[in-house]
Amino acid sequence: MIVGSASTMIEAALIIQLPYDVEKRIAPIAQFNSSPFILAAARGLPVESVQALIAYAKANPAALNFASSGTGSSGHLAGELLKHSAGIDMTHVPYKGIGPGLVDLMGGRIQVLFGSTTAVMPHVNSGKIRALAVSSLQRAKTLPALPALAETLPGYEVITWWGMLGPDGIPAPVIVALNGEINQILLLPEMRKIVGADGAEIANGSPEQFRQVITKGLASVRDMVAKTGIKLH
User: Fold this and answer.
1) What 8-state DSSP symbol labels residue 147?
2) Which pLDDT does position 232 carry in this prediction?
3) I want to staple 136 with a disulfide (CB 3.0 to 4.6 A). Which of 29, 36, 169, 177 is the partner?
4) H/E element holding 223?
5) Fold of domain 36-151
6) Average pLDDT score over residue span 196-224
7) Cα–Cα distance between 155 and 138 in angstroms, integer?
8) Where along the chain do the CATH 3.40.190.10 domains lie?
9) pTM to 2 decimal places
């Protein structure tokens, strides 16, 4: 059993060349949560909205750098999809983790990045960087003041999740039992408070619903790669 994320599946299925189909070799057990990314900008960048960012990028070709936690990361894919959807140019700067990227964003050496709510919002709340939007189709319940990128770029969506996965072949009754126990824990008020504090939403679904989330996510990434032509290796 492992606790994995959307990035775990992207790496296993699309980046690391495994000799087997990872989707067929894993058994989704329970999805813990789902969460959008935050599109954040440096305070020195004269934009306060997605529309303004797009206009700035078009007026200043190749002037923007966007950080991610590494090539092929969800933040990298989100930035490339923004470029493609908005018809703008930005230079990708991969870091070894989002922390160094945030440091350079706060220092003005990087202009924008996509990061998790947990990583980004403390610096937004302290006034060191500016949050422009969330990467989900709708506004996040935990951050209702932030617009969704899809409000400007219809259909734009890049989300992440965490959940429990196991190897294929686990007896179905065991999966169902584990799923039920995990979902009961997730519904506890203290768990809802912890998950909500990170800007995420409780999933509380069945193993089959979790598999559908994984399948849809990987299909979306493959489509994104085909559209943008980015290299994940």
Assistant:
1) P
2) 67
3) 36
4) helix 207-228
5) D-Maltodextrin-Binding Protein; domain 2 (3.40.190)
6) 87
7) 10
8) 36-151
9) 0.86
From residue 187, give the alpha-carbon distance in Å to each of 141, 164, 182, 192, 205.
17, 16, 9, 6, 11
Please return the burial class of 204, using the count of CB atoms within 10 Å of its CB with bins 0-12, 13-18 and 19+. middle
Per-residue model confidence (pLDDT) at position 72: 82
To the question of domain 2-35+159-228 being in CATH 3.40.50.790, the answer is no
d(CA 60, CA 63): 6
Could you say which DSSP state residue 110 is in? S
- Binned at pLDDT 50, 70 and 90, residue 233 comes out as low
State how far the alpha carbon of 46 is from the alpha carbons of 28, 52, 117, 132, 220, in Å: 44, 8, 22, 12, 32
3-state helix, strand, coil in the chain (%, to 5): 45, 20, 35
Q: Would you give the DSSP letter of residue 202?
A: E
